[in-house]
Design goal:
14 strands, eight-stranded parallel beta barrel, 15 helices, alpha/beta, two-stranded antiparallel sheet, single chain
Length: 422
């Protein structure tokens, strides 16, 4: 008999039909399966993103807050509400307090330096972060804690021995750096603890500050030198690392050439920084697998990757191997214009070119977070609205990437920001 013959039918026994019906009914009633347990879907895979299509990184439209000038939480919520109406979906809040930073006016500070969340690894100025998170969530905004690493005011028993060591080109001697050495175990342990604790404030993400770098003349600390020798068999001697350095009239030093050992050392330092970054990310995700991670990158990491590696031990290409959700590019047009001696239009074009290059490097445009400066770093005055409009326009013309402006101020032209955040 041809099984495909239309005039022939096969009638299954009544018992098989009944069993099939009962099996379907049990499935619909939700009777638990008593067989071997299935491997659950990881939380990160099962996540439903509120600000983007399911299964993709949501487009971040951020406001980075250096300080709220609000006197109380009522004013804070009003400010957050205004940002939400302008299209902001993510608040990036400074979670640390360094010497010289302005303290949140609504805070009740117990220390002049420290952090704004509960922890035992650093002085707690006032745990206001959890309250800010609650207010932002009320208006549908995510909150990212803006976190430091090497500059964090940690509780270290003997801080002098935990600092990095720099080589001074002028005196040709070693000196203690202002930032922590990542090769100090106490520093690493404290930072890991901090990144675990900040997640407990209910935040949705973390922005890792741009202090997770090492300059070309650090770290010559004994532990760093010893580890480099153990892992590479190479000795660190400034005489053999650098060409004859010279000083510009503005005051900064320039190294015209580097040895092969220097380039090996710069790559090695980058690997050590990213090793620490991975530990911090894992610590945060152990507390909440759903937490989003952003990391700051200097503009040179896009415009001149080899210089970024030499000067900062920073590599965007290597960092892309980490579980980072957002690559936060500090595309500060006025800074770029000044440092590269560009015209105003050329600075805008440079930011546009950076965006285009990143779109070729990174697989998801939403992962590219272009940060726009709203204040002149030197004069401390807000930039004119037409400049902000030009920068946002140039970026958006290249592709639909994530955006953030820095710093937030109640006098900013939110209508212009809202236009580009659509």
């Amino acid at each position: 008999m041809n099984p495909l013959q239309p005039n022939k039918t096969i009638r299954p026994p009544l018992l098989i039909l009944v069993c099939t019906f009962l099996l379907i009914l049990l499935c619909h009633l939700g009777v638990p399966n008593k067989g071997p347990e299935r491997t659950p879907i990881p939380v990160a895979e099962a996540r439903i993103h509120p600000f983007g299509s399911e299964g993709s990184i949501p487009r971040l439209l951020g406001a980075q807050v250096l300080v709220f000038t609000c006197e109380d939480y009522v004013q804070v919520e009003k400010a957050i509400g205004g940002l939400a109406k302008a299209g902001v979906n993510t608040l990036i809040v400074r979670a640390f307090q360094n010497q010289g930073d302005r303290i949140y006016r609504f805070a009740n500070p117990k220390y002049r330096t420290g952090v704004y969340f509960q922890t035992t690894h650093a002085p707690v100025v006032d745990p206001v972060l959890a309250r800010i998170v609650s207010l932002a969530h009320r208006h549908g905004l995510r909150v990212f804690a803006w976190m430091e690493t090497r500059k964090t005011p940690l509780d270290i028993p003997d801080p002098a021995t935990a600092k990095a060591v720099s080589y001074c080109f002028k005196t040709k001697t070693y000196t203690s750096a202002s930032s922590w050495s990542i090769f100090n175990q106490s520093v690493e342990d404290k930072l890991v603890g901090l990144y675990q604790d900040v997640v407990k404030s209910g935040i949705d993400g973390i922005l890792i500050q741009d202090d997770l770098i090492m300059y070309q003349n650090e770290d010559f600390s004994p532990k760093a030198i010893s580890r480099f020798w153990e892992e590479t068999g190479k000795q660190l001697d400034p005489v053999t690392l650098y060409g004859e350095a010279f000083q510009y009239p503005e005051g900064h030093w320039c190294v015209p050439t580097y040895s092969d050992t220097f380039w090996h050392w710069a790559s090695w330092k980058n690997a050590q920084l990213l090793r620490l970054a991975r530990k911090l990310i894992c610590a945060a995700k152990n507390e909440n697998p759903d937490i989003s991670i952003a990391m700051n990158f200097m503009y040179e990491s896009v415009t001149a990757p080899r210089n970024a590696l030499a000067w900062l031990s920073q590599s965007l290409a290597e960092a892309a191997k980490l579980p980072i959700d957002y690559f936060a590019i500090m595309a500060y047009h006025r800074q770029i214009r000044k440092e590269l001696r560009l015209s105003e239009e050329a600075a805008y074009d440079k930011v546009a070119h950076m965006t285009t290059r990143l779109l070729k490097w990174i697989d998801d445009p939403h992962k590219i977070l272009m940060k726009v400066q709203m204040t002149d770093w030197k004069t401390r005055k807000e930039i004119p609205p037409h400049e902000a409009n030009q920068v946002f326009r140039k970026i958006n013309q290249q592709g639909r990437v994530s955006l953030a402006f820095i710093p937030y101020s109640p006098t900013l032209p939110l209508n212009i920001i809202g236009h580009h955040y659509r």
